[in-house]
Structure formats: C-alpha cells, structure tokens
C-alpha cells in the first residue's frame, strides 16, 4: 500500500507528503527500487506532457491539422494517409515509453549507455551512434567512450575540445542540431564539416545541472533520407531521459561504493570483506583452489595515538592503507578490518605464498618513515601479521577469520613485529 501511495504522489506532485514516507519506503523496498520508482514516475510525467503537447499543439498546427487538411468531400486517400501518420505517431510514442521504462530500470552505467545507444539506432533507424565523454588523460577533450555501428577507424579520429563553439551553443540552448542543414557548418567549421563527411548527422548534449557531461553523435539514416523535425525532437527527449538515467546510475554507484568503503583509508570495509570472503571461498571450493587470509595489526598503536594525537594516528592508518593497496595483485582484496587492523584476501595463494607476502609487507612497514615514529617503544612503527589458509586451516569463512585472528595474536604474544601462520611454527624476525 505504501509503495502504491508513493508512486501516485510522485506522479501527482504532492512533494510535502513524499518527505514523510520517503525514508520509511527506502527501508522497505531498498534504495535501488526507490531510485527506479523516482526515475520512472518523472519520466512518465514527461512523456504524458509531451503527448499532450503533440496532440494539442503540433497536430493542431495549420500544416499538420488533419481535419483542416481534409476536403469537404473527405477524400479517402487523404484519410488513409492521415490515419497512417497517426498510427505511426502512436507507435513512436509507444516505443518511446518502452525505451523510457527500459532505461530507468537499469542502474548499471555500462549497460545503461549501451541500451541507450541501441535505442537511438533502432528508433531513428540510423547507421550508428556514439557517446563522447571527457578523456581520462585530458578532461578538456571529449572522445568517443561508447559507440554502436560506427567503424573503429572513424571512432579513432573523433575528438572535440571544450573550447569549440559547439559547447557554447549547447550551453546557451541545449537542443540537438542537424549537421546537414545547420548554419554552424555552412563553410565556417572544418571539424563539424569533417564529422558530417564521416557520416554524423545529429549532435545532442547530455546535460546535468547546466553542465555538459557528454555529447551524443548520431549517424545518417539507413535510408539516406534527412531526419525530420519529429525525429530530432524524439532524440532530444531520449537524450534528456538518458541524462537523468546516467546521472542517477553514477549516483547509485557512488552510494554503493560509499556503503562498502572505509571513509578514512578508502579501502573496502568489513561488510564488503565478509561478502567477498564468502564468494572467494565458494569459488575456491568449486575449482579446488587454495585461498589465504592475512590480518595486520599496528603494534602499540594506542601508545602512538596517546603520544601524538588522533590526527597523527589517522594519517598512519591512511599511509598503511595506501602501501597495502599498492603491494597486492589486482585480483587480491584488501580492506580495513577494524580499528588499527587490516586484512588481505589472497586468492590462489598457498601458505608459503601468504608467508612471503606477509613478511615482505612487514619489512616494508618497518622501513617506511612514519611521522615521529621514534615515540614508539621500539623506536619504529611496526606491524604484527597473522595468516591462515583455506582449506588447510579452515573450511568456512568464519573459521578462516577465526584462525587468522588467532595467528595474529600469536604473533603479538611472541613479541610483535613478526609474521605468524596458523600452525605450530612461528616465523620470528630478529
């Protein structure tokens, strides 16, 4: 009942009442479904508005008014033509609605962009479409990041600077332009002339908060005919949908990352560690692989905090997190276990590999110059390490964590600044 009421209020526009139930609804249906309901309802409102506009404004214009065009004798051929046009408009609107529902149901960025480009190609019957995004190495240059239909030779030669007049034009008026008949390329713009020659016909901005976050480039129609004004308007509406969808997909991804990331160290948190450890153990069981789990604890960390203050302690944890992240393979998973403890999941690493990795990292921390580390009891900031191996030491996620924790405390009891495996052997370091 609460879900139905929330959806109705969104479409009706009763925003004060929404605030009373929004957080409760998020708890009931989850943040992902709440995102989708927000987007779908706003999209439905936009489509309904566009349908009304098309019906009462566009169809009532003198050149498009079917009733005005019909002669008094009601020419059957003209009536058939108008009926066919009306059916096409209804079909296009139906497709637009289906596209909007499809786009708003996807919160994965890659899938969303791929679906959007395919929808453009299918709806406009174009030879291809591409999304230009700021380059990773230079945000001032937009290059194709995703594309459908265009050959790679053309994609590699497409780029545009943010200082190009096209960006100023889109900032002033965020509507699509037709390169085949636009005044912008009437002999004055060599770049857009080149794009037009390469088969690009339409350009549209992806806007978010008055900022151009991308440019959609659409190829020529498969039939070779020019795009109609209705098709340009449809591209504009689809682009607006995509802008909202992509922004929300990115926001959802950011919220997902926040929920699994430790704020201080930017490593994964304990929640993510538990989930990934369970997944990795399941994978190791399925393929008969080994898996090692390593726990790290900063020695005398309370003494360091008490002597230099918590900001200094936080900086140490941040530095250790960065060092740990750069010391593992891409397939390894590192996280903050809690307090001054860190954890590393090492897939397909046996007990010997776990020891060598742990000892190498222990020495790296011992040799690293931390801020005022001379205040520590042994004159240096060091770590103790405990490790356990699946399936040698444990058969489950919780058991592996327990065994690695016992190995860690064995290292602490043996004098700190050393590595200990969950076995009778303690690898001590002088």
Range of strand content: 15-25%
Order of secondary-structure elements? HHHHHHEEHEHEHEEHHEHHEEHEHEE
Structural class: alpha+beta
* Widest beta sheet: strand line-up: 3-2-1-6-5-4
Judging from the principal axes of the Cα atoms, what is the shape? elongated
Helical coverage, percent range: 40-55%
CATH class categorisation of one domain: Alpha Beta
**Which spans have pLDDT < 50 for at least 5 consecutive residues?**
1-29, 55-73, 426-430
Major sheet description: 6 strands, antiparallel
Rg for CA atoms: 30 Å
Q: Superfamily at the CATH H level of one domain?
A: Reverse transcriptase/Diguanylate cyclase domain
Q: Helix segment count?
A: 15
Number of strands: 12
Which CATH architecture of one domain is right?
2-Layer Sandwich
Distance between the termini: 68 Å
**Mean pLDDT across every amino acid position:** 81
From the 3D structure, determine the CATH topology of one domain: Alpha-Beta Plaits
Write up what this structure looks like.
It is a single chain. The protein has helices at residues 2-12, 15-29, 31-58, 66-69, 76-104, 109-124, 152-155, 165-172, 190-197, 229-260, 270-287, 301-308, 310-325, 351-367, 397-413; strands at 129-134, 141-148, 160-161, 177-178, 200-208, 211-219, 291-298, 333-338, 341-347, 383-390, 419-421, 426-427. It is α+β, with helices and mostly antiparallel strands and 430 residues long. The protein has a domain at 270-427: Alpha-Beta Plaits, CATH 3.30.70.270. The strands form two sheets. Strands 3-2-1-6-5-4 form a six-stranded antiparallel β-sheet, sandwiched between helices. Strand 10, helix 15 and strand 11 (419-421) form a beta-alpha-beta unit. The chain is elongated, with a radius of gyration of 30 Å.
């Amino acid at each position: 009942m609460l879900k139905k009421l929330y959806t109705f209020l969104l479409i009706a526009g009763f925003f004060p009442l929404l605030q009373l139930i929004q957080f409760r609804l998020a708890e009931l249906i989850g943040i992902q479904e709440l995102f989708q309901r927000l987007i779908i309802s706003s999209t439905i409102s936009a489509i309904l508005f566009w349908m009304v506009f098309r019906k009462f404004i566009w169809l009532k214009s003198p050149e498009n008014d079917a009733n005005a065009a019909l002669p008094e004798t009601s020419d059957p051929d003209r009536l058939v033509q108008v009926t066919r046009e009306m059916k096409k408009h209804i079909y296009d609107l139906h497709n637009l609605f289906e596209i909007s529902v499809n786009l708003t149901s996807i919160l994965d960025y890659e899938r969303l962009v791929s679906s959007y480009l395919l929808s453009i190609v299918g709806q406009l019957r174009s030879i291809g479409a591409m999304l230009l995004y700021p380059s990773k190495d230079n945000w001032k240059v937009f290059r194709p990041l995703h594309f459908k239909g265009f050959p790679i030779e053309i994609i590699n030669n497409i780029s545009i600077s943010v200082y190009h007049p096209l960006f100023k034009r889109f900032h002033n008026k965020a509507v699509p332009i037709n390169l085949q008949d636009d005044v912008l390329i009437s002999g004055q713009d060599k770049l857009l002339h080149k794009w037009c020659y390469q088969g690009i016909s339409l350009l549209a901005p992806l806007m978010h908060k008055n900022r151009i976050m991308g440019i959609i480039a659409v190829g020529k129609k498969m039939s070779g005919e020019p795009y109609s004004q209705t098709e340009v308007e449809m591209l504009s509406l689809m682009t607006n949908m995509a802008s909202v969808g992509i922004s929300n997909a990115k926001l959802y991804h950011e919220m997902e990352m926040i929920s699994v990331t430790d704020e201080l160290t930017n490593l994964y948190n304990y929640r993510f560690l538990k989930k990934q450890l369970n997944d990795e153990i399941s994978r190791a069981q399925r393929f008969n692989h080994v898996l090692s789990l390593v726990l790290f604890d900063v020695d005398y960390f309370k003494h360091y905090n008490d002597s230099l203050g918590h900001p200094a302690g936080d900086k140490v944890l941040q530095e250790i997190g960065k060092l740990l992240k750069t010391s593992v393979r891409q397939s390894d998973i590192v996280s903050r276990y809690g307090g001054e403890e860190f954890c590393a999941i090492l897939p397909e690493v046996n007990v010997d590999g776990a020891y060598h990795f742990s000892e190498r990292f222990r020495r790296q921390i011992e040799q690293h110059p931390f801020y005022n580390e001379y205040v520590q009891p042994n004159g240096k900031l060091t770590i103790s390490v405990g490790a356990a191996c699946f399936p040698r030491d444990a058969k489950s996620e919780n058991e592996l964590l327990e065994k690695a924790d016992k190995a860690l405390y064995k290292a602490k009891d043996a004098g700190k600044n050393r590595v200990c495996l969950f076995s009778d052997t303690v690898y001590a370091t002088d």
